[in-house]
C-alpha cells in the first residue's frame, strides 16, 4: 500500500530549525549566516529560496515582507516563520529520528 | 542607495532581474546586495563572490527539471522532424534503382531504411535544393493530423491527463499511421509501385504531428512549473 505520509527532507529539516532558532529575524541573509556559523554549511541562496518556497506550499512556513533599505538596493526582506503545522512536523521528525538513534544496534556502533 | 558606496556589478543585477521568477526576484537580489555591501572583503573578492552567487542562482532557477525536459523534447522533436523530412525528400527525388530494390520497402521492416546507407549518403550530399513544398502535401495525412490533434485535446480536457500520460498519448497518435503501415506491409503482399501512398501516410502524418504535439507538451510543462 502506498505510504501517503510526507516526511521532511534533510535540508528542509535544517532550514526549519534555523528559522525557528532565529525568531523574528529569520530572512535569507541571517538564515545563511546561522547555517554557516552553527553547522559550517555554506548554502546557495537559490537552494535556500527553492526550499522555503516548497515549505510554504506545504504549509510549514509562512513569510512576510518588510524592511527595505538602501543597503539592500531598496528591496524588502522576506521574513520567515515556522507555522504550528511546521512545529508539529519538526516534532514528528525528531521523534522518528530519536527512535532510529535509540535502536540498540545503532547505539552499539555510535 | 548611497552612490559613494560600492555597489554590486550592474550586469549581474540585470541578469538576476531577467532570469529569476517574480516570486523570489526581490528577495534574492536584496539578500545578495545586503551581503555584498556588508562584506569587508576587497572589491575584487566581493565582485567575484557576487558573480559566483548570481550564476549559481540563475542556473538553479532557469535549468529546472521541467525546462531541461522541454529542451530535450524540443531537440529530439526537431532532429526527428529533420530525419523524416529528409526521408520524404529521398523518397521523392532519389533516382538510384538499387536503393529501391531493398526488401524493407514492402516487407514491414521499414525501420531499416532509417539506418541504411543510402539515406545517410543522401543526407550527407545535402540535396536540400531539390526540396519543394508539394512533396509535403498529403491530404490523408492532413486529415489524420486534424483528427489526432482534436482527439488529443478532447481526451486531455475530459480526463485531466498528467504530463506523462499526455506524452504517451502523443507518441501513440504520432506512431499509429506508421505502425498501421508496417502491419499492412507485413500482412499483405504489396508491390513497390503501390507502396508510395502508404509510405507517405506513415511519414508525412508523423511530420505534421511532431511539432504541434511538441508545442502542446512544452506548454503543459510550463503550466506544471508555474
TrEMBL record, chain A:
It comes from the Bacteria. Residues 17-91 form the Transcription regulator PadR N-terminal domain. InterPro entries: Metal_resp_DNA-bind_regulator, Tscrpt_reg_PadR_N, WH-like_DNA-bd_sf, WH_DNA-bd_sf. Pfam families: PadR. This is PadR family transcriptional regulator. It comes from Alteromonas ponticola. The lineage of its organism: Bacteria, Pseudomonadati, Pseudomonadota, Gammaproteobacteria, Alteromonadales.
From TrEMBL, chain B:
It comes from the Bacteria. Keywords: Membrane, Transmembrane, Transmembrane helix. This is DUF2079 domain-containing protein. The chain crosses the membrane at residues 70-94, 135-155, 167-186, 198-218.
Amino acid at each position: 500500500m502506498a505510504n501517503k505520509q510526507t516526511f521532511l527532507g534533510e535540508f528542509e529539516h535544517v532550514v526549519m530549525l534555523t528559522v525557528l532558532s532565529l525568531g523574528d529575524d529569520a530572512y535569507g541573509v541571517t538564515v545563511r549566516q546561522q547555517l554557516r556559523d552553527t553547522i559550517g554549511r555554506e548554502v546557495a541562496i537559490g537552494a535556500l529560496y527553492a526550499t522555503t518556497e516548497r515549505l510554504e506550499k506545504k504549509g510549514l512556513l509562512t513569510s512576510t515582507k518588510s524592511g527595505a533599505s538602501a543597503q539592500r538596493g531598496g528591496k524588502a526582506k522576506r521574513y520567515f516563520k515556522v507555522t504550528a503545522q511546521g512545529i508539529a512536523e519538526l516534532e514528528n521528525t525528531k521523534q522518528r529520528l530519536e527512535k532510529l538513534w535509540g535502536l540498540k544496534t545503532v547505539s552499539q556502533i555510535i | 542607495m548611497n552612490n559613494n558606496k560600492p555597489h554590486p556589478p550592474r550586469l549581474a543585477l540585470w541578469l538576476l532581474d531577467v532570469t529569476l521568477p517574480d516570486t523570489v526576484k526581490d528577495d534574492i537580489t536584496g539578500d545578495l546586495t545586503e551581503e555584498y555591501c556588508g562584506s569587508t572583503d576587497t572589491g575584487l573578492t566581493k565582485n567575484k563572490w557576487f558573480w559566483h552567487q548570481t550564476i549559481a542562482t540563475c542556473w538553479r532557477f532557469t535549468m529546472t527539471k521541467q525546462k531541461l525536459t522541454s529542451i530535450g523534447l524540443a531537440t529530439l522533436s526537431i532532429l526527428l522532424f529533420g530525419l523524416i523530412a529528409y526521408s520524404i525528400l529521398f523518397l521523392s527525388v532519389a533516382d538510384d534503382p538499387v536503393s529501391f530494390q531493398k526488401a524493407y520497402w514492402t516487407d514491414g521492416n521499414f525501420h531499416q531504411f532509417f539506418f541504411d546507407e543510402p539515406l545517410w549518403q543522401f543526407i550527407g550530399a545535402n540535396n536540400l535544393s531539390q526540396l519543394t513544398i508539394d512533396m509535403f502535401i498529403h491530404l490523408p495525412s492532413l486529415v489524420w493530423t486534424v483528427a489526432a490533434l482534436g482527439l488529443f485535446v478532447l481526451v486531455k480536457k475530459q480526463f485531466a491527463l498528467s504530463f506523462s500520460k499526455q506524452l504517451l498519448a502523443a507518441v501513440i497518435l504520432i506512431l499509429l499511421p506508421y505502425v498501421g503501415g508496417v502491419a499492412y506491409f507485413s500482412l499483405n503482399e504489396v508491390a513497390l509501385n503501390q507502396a508510395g501512398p502508404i509510405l507517405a501516410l506513415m511519414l508525412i502524418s508523423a511530420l505534421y504531428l511532431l511539432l504541434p504535439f511538441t508545442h502542446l507538451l512544452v506548454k503543459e510543462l510550463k503550466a506544471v512549473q508555474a
